[in-house]
């Protein structure tokens, strides 16, 4: 096989792989209770292994490296969100300005 063909196929693989970190990044706004920690850990581990593999092959595939680094960070962020949700409860409560002002001052 020619090096051109190898680079082309590697680029296509990296381009298709970008759907995983894009989906993870888009899910950052979803409720952390919907995060599956087993699948997220699997995806993070997969990306960490292939981060190393993408530069160990000849020729190195830097597009795939960028994809897997991005996915590792995105999955680690999702795991952090899930962990925060499990240890800290539902959602962080926000205090409104009016709830912190004494009632006597509010009624004036």
UniProtKB/TrEMBL annotation:
Membrane topology of the entry: Multi-pass membrane protein
Cellular location(s): Mitochondrion inner membrane
Main location class: mitochondrion
An example Gene Ontology CC term for this record: mitochondrial inner membrane
Alphabetical UniProt keywords: Membrane, Mitochondrion, Mitochondrion inner membrane, Transmembrane, Transmembrane helix, Transport
GO process annotations (BP): pyruvate import into mitochondria
The family this protein is said to belong to: Belongs to the mitochondrial pyruvate carrier (MPC) (TC 2.A.105) family.
Protein's job: Mediates the uptake of pyruvate into mitochondria.
Protein's name in the database: Mitochondrial pyruvate carrier
């Amino acid at each position: 096989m020619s090096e051109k063909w190898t680079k082309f196929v590697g680029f296509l693989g990296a381009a298709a792989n970008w759907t995983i970190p894009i989906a993870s990044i888009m899910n950052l706004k979803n409720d952390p209770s919907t995060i599956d920690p087993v699948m997220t850990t699997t995806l993070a581990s997969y990306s960490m292994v292939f981060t190393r593999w993408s530069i160990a092959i000849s020729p190195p595939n830097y597009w795939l490296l960028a994809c897997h680094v991005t996915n590792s960070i995105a999955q680690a962020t999702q795991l952090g969100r899930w962990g925060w949700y499990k240890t800290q409860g539902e959602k962080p409560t926000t205090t409104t300005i009016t709830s912190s002002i004494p009632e006597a001052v509010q009624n004036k």
